[in-house]
Amino acid sequence: MRTRAAARRRVQWGEEPGARSLEPNRRIVGALLRCNVDVKADYNPAIFHQKFIIRDYRERTLPRSAILTGSANFTQTDCHRNLNHVVVFHDARICREYTTEFNQMRAGHFGRGAHGKVPAAYNLNGIPVKVLFAPDHAPELEIMKQMLKATQRVDFAIFTFSGSSGIDDAMIALAAARRTVTGAMDPGQGAQTWAATHDLDRAHIELYFPKRSPAFGKLHHKLMTIDDAVVIAGSFNYTAPANNYNDENIFVIGSPYPDLPKREGGPVDPAACAELTRFFRDEIHRIEAAGERFIGEG
Questions:
Q1: Which of 230, 221, 266, 204 is nearest to 152 (CA)?
Q2: Could you tell me the fold of the domain covering 49-293?
């Protein structure tokens, strides 16, 4: 017979910004508390941006241990109207990385103030996987490092992309080096005066906005592919606050180097990395093909 302690489920709760979201959140929190679910609230929703669920992992491997993460908030709109991605890792080592982050937040440590250990890379059937958290690991630097390995192309789909994030400068440098750089951006966020859209357009980088329609909400991806080798995804928008203040996660899947040492996630199966990268890049290209080319004012 299961004890009451064993039956408890622990949840880290972060409110979604916006006045309209507060009342549904309160109702959900109330329902969870009535069901004896241990909920901890972050009272600064401006910096809490995590979206992940850990299943059946309590500091040890279980047959059903898994982690679900990605760009989707657990809301009606993000699951049914907005463009998002989720990834499920069936690997206890990846679960352990997210559990450490969860425990840190559960103890009340949000945003800046803690430096995580150096991110490790794990080999999953020939594919290296590395998990990073913001602001502990400054994921923007990892994204830029991976981008600079490109020999052919970088494709991306992003919700919020602010100018001078560092990633936009890397894209402009890659375009100048004759790499193909194309991207899809949310039409609401991408049209803002502070967005990177305008500088990227002046650098002759092709950008696309999804067409507005009753069925479409937002482009909410935070997704990038590099050549036929690397996928970068997770909760991380390309902004300075995401890098410096917010609680975020990214995962880097794949590598262009087949002879990576074991400590860096090798050895690498290039064909497996390419298959996975093409899967995500096809989604980016689908959004671009159904969208409209952004034409700046010059």
A1: 230
A2: Endonuclease; Chain A (3.30.870)
